[in-house]
Design a protein that fits this description.
With 155 residues, the protein is of the alpha/beta class. It contains 4 helices and 6 strands, in the order βαβαβαβαββ. The longest helix has 13 residues.
């Protein structure tokens, strides 16, 4: 009898900050995942070298590990901050490493947004992922409205 595998989701935070609200949002998703769904946090974002297409085929272990984690996942959750109306360079870098190798091709991806003000980054990230032929799951892509103790929106 074949064992039924649960759903494997890879969570990627676009922030390297230790107190990142985006990382906290993904940790909450991990905690709240229903039975049969395993969400694993990708922790190697800051360890990847700068993308260089000349290195394709001779990638460092950190790049191979990221690609393997994507290959074995059934879907991806991404939560990213916005810097200067765009996504952080480290997140763009990790995505650049898989443009040519295709790990995100037709892979279901949900975008979580920890700040209602991060509209430009969300639009940019969505465009990048659509260019890579990822399958954005709009029904699972959400913005979390947050407010400060004084009632003003926080970013």
């Amino acid at each position: 009898m074949q064992e039924i595998k649960g759903i494997q989701i890879l969570a990627i935070s676009g922030s390297l900050r230790s107190a990142s609200s985006n990382t906290a949002l993904l940790r909450s998703a991990i905690t709240l995942a229903p039975k049969g769904v395993e969400i694993a946090m990708y922790n190697g974002l800051g360890n990847l070298p700068h993308f260089n297409p000349d290195l394709e085929g001779t990638e460092l272990p950190s790049v191979k590990d990221f690609r393997t984690q994507l290959q074995i996942s059934d879907g991806v959750l991404i939560s990213s901050p916005e810097y200067a109306h765009g996504i952080p360079g480290v997140l763009k870098n990790v995505l650049d490493w898989v443009v040519g190798s295709g790990e995100l091709y037709r892979k279901p991806v949900a975008l979580l947004n920890a700040s209602p003000r991060a509209l430009y980054a969300q639009a940019s990230l969505k465009e990048i992922l659509l260019t890579m032929d990822a399958r954005i799951i709009n029904e699972a892509s959400i913005t979390i409205p947050r407010s400060s103790p004084m009632g003003r929106p926080r970013t």
